[in-house]
Amino acid sequence: MAGKTPGKSAVAAKKEAPSKGSDTPRRSTARRSLVTRDLLEKATRLFAEKGYETTTLQDVAAAVGVSRTALYHYVTSKEELLAMLVEQMSLGLAETLAALKARTDLTPEGKLRELTDNLVRQRAESPQQFRVHDQTESALPEPLRSRHRQARRDVLAALSGVIEEGIERGEFKPLDPRVAAFSVLGMCNWVAWWYHPGPDYDIDSVARQISQSAIDMVAAGDAPRGPVDSAKSALAMARSSLDALERLLPGEG
Question: Where does the chain show beta strands of DSSP type E?
């Protein structure tokens, strides 16, 4: 018995050793993720304030509080920072919306609510990132620019597809799906410019109202409409919804 005890201890020690050693790369990865996130936030703020073209890596390094040499451990150019921003704001969103569109447990109305909610929250939670992302498309290098444009098409396709599905099932009016999708996107995208959290309304209430506005715009009514009238109706209702949202802003009547 006495001879077996050391053997068990040795095995236990061997099991513990990889676990302790594996903590180091995990900590290193976590730290790198935190630093990269901070870099992206600071760079985004600089891109928004100074403009992408006039912002330098030295500006980013100074904002983060590190030397330019230290910065090179994380990124090698401001184009790489912009690419990270696109990955986060455009490509990731397109994948999320495509997966949501494919769900079979939701009706078209449920999908449209979820899609709109996702869009509104992303714009509201990262307004500077979305504004920079929206204004710097021409600065994207290939093949990232093509991937970004494809992601935009994928987002539009997801929205259009859900609206078309609702039309086919009789839940939505016979609208032009693309015009209706552009109208919904317009409402959601505009959030990045006007929304500011405050005591009068929060992101949950704003997301609910915009999602409901999207549903109201496409929900089937008693009287059928032709394609041309439907397109005009969708745009008119989108403008009306934006007017209602702007009245929620502090100081607006």
Answer: none
Which of 97, 210, 73, 91 lies closest to 145 in space, CA to CA?
Answer: 91
Per-residue pLDDT tens, the chain, 253 aa: give them. 444 444 443 433 444 444 455 555 555 666 666 777 788 888 888 888 888 888 888 998 898 888 888 888 888 888 888 888 877 777 778 888 889 899 999 999 999 999 999 999 988 988 888 888 777 777 777 887 888 888 889 999 999 999 999 999 999 999 999 999 999 999 999 998 898 877 777 899 999 999 999 999 999 864 344 344 445 555 555 555 555 455 545 554 4
Give the Å distances, CA to CA, from 243 to 89, 210, 249: 26, 12, 10
Tokens 């093949």 correspond to: 143
Q: How far is CA 44 from CA 183, 192, 208, in A?
A: 27, 14, 28
b/e per residue 210-239 (b: at least 16 CB within 10 A): bbebbbebbeeeeeeeeeeebbebbbebbe
Angstrom distance (rounded) from CA 97 to CA 215: 17
Task: Name residue 172's beta-bridge partners.
Answer: 219
Instruction: Write the DSSP string, 88-157.
Output: IIIIHHHHHHHHHHT-SSS-HHHHHHHHHHHHHHHHHHSHHHHHHHHH-GGGPPTTHHHHHHHHHHHHHH
How many Å separate Cα 108 from the centre of its chain? 21
Are residues 127 and 195 in contact, defined by beta-carbon separation less than 8 angstroms? Answer: yes
Task: Using a cut of 0.70, tell me whether the model's pTM lies above it.
Answer: no
